[in-house]
Amino acid sequence: MRHGVGGRKLNRTSSHRKAMRRNMVQSLIEHGRIKTTLVKAKDVRAFAERLFTLAIDGSLAARQRATALLNDRQIVPRDRQADYDRMSDEDRARTHRSRSGRRYRAATTRPGVEFTSESVVNRLFTEIGPALKARIADRGSAGGYTRIIKLAEPRLGDAAPTAILEIVSAEDAPRTGRTDTNRRRRKAEARYALFAGGVTSTAAAAKAQAEQAPAEEAAPEGDSTED
Which of 25, 50, 85, 212 would you call most buried, defined as having the most Cβ atoms within 10 angstroms of its Cβ? Predict the structure, then answer.
């Protein structure tokens, strides 16, 4: 019996699912948003939120845990992508590895190398983590680091619903409450006000509201004569 077994199988083996989540979250960290199916976006979102929580922590233990969960990948600068495509495998390895054998963390120029790539984990902890931490300080609540935007057009081939998974930046304003401009909301608030005034039935409230509306329309707006 499979009690307590959560998650989605996505018609994949466990190793395939883990690799898919890692690759998609790495692309999310690199580009800030990814387009995928709605089911995959919902599945990857939980894993991404977990890594973003570690990035907000920012400790050495959190960095080591994120590296174990995510697997580090190198990000090639966009302005250097054409040069990287023309390189041989040996030159590409030099852009990813320092002379000591360790990966470059930041995309800084090193001796003997035209450019270097950037570590995904480094970007997660140096850029995304502080930005999300500042956003938490402004809003006063944690969580909700990503959003899913459903798209109207389905995927070609199997018509699967598609969506965009993106990181919520610190510049995005928090969602405000509803305003009283909605017609149904105004009617409901007026009905509740009548009930509070002693009206005990819906029919009586509708009658009182109908009698009140013409009186408001017939009321003068004020003296409009000019001096």
Answer: 25
